[in-house]
Write a structure and sequence with these properties.
9 strands, 38% helix, two-stranded antiparallel ribbon, alpha/beta, five-stranded parallel β-sheet, Rossmann fold
Length: 223
């Protein structure tokens, strides 16, 4: 069975628009036969990486010396096949999610290689992650405002030598709701997010047309 682990970086956790999109996507993964576990970065209270000497690489054989919420999810991360990073657009990331991403270094081997002119690592043999996917929401109209998030997720996948499976990007996400209720356009976005999850679970990839439906304009651009 395919196992997916999702980390919701939104400080609003289940109350935010990030959760709306993530829950729809996770529902599709489950419909496609995958097992999904979701963690909220704000609940985990993960500290910043404090080992500039990379003790997890050089002394501790992949074990992180910091005892905090990361210790709860390291075993789950090792078992997962797909890592899903879900986040609202900050400048560029909420701090709790950034801490978690930095602490993923313990899952990687220090056996570095040069590929296409860049230094890269890879996941340790006992880590099953082969794919990373991104879910991101933004309040601004243009999807391009999330380019930095997209680049960070791609770089993380490249650094770990795993596949970047694609991104569900939702600009002007507030227009998915009206008076606290999901609009018809919002329901269309969530249906596309669910379909993307089904595709990733059953096909191992997400259709570009499906991802475009997630990102479709919901209102005309303001002046």
């Amino acid at each position: 069975m395919t196992r997916a682990l999702a980390i919701n970086g939104s400080p609003r956790m289940e109350k935010g628009k990030t959760a709306l999109l993530l829950n729809a996507f996770a529902g599709g993964l489950k419909e496609g036969g995958a097992e999904v576990q979701t963690y909220h970065a704000s609940k985990l209270k993960v500290q910043a990486c404090a080992c500039g000497s990379l003790r997890c690489w050089n002394e501790l054989d992949g074990k992180c010396c910091i005892q905090d919420g990361m210790q709860e999810i390291y075993p789950k991360l090792r078992m997962a096949n797909i890592l899903i990073l879900a986040t609202p657009m900050y400048i560029p990331l909420p701090g709790d999610l950034q801490n978690i991403m930095n602490r993923l270094v313990a899952l990687m081997t220090p056996e570095l290689v040069t590929r296409d002119g860049r230094t890269r690592a890879r996941m340790r043999d006992e880590v099953n992650i082969t794919k990373i996917a991104l879910i991101a929401v933004s309040g601004w109209w243009e999807m391009e405002n999330m380019d930095t998030l997209l680049r960070i997720a791609r770089e993380l996948a490249e650094d770990a030598s795993v596949e970047f499976s694609g991104a569900l990007l939702r600009p002007h996400a507030s227009y998915m709701l009206s008076d606290g209720e999901i609009t018809s356009a919002g329901r269309g976005v969530l249906a596309a997010a669910r379909q993307a999850g089904i595709e990733l679970a059953t096909l191992g990839t997400m259709n570009e047309a499906t991802l475009n439906q997630v990102s479709q304009p919901l209102v005309p651009r303001y002046p």
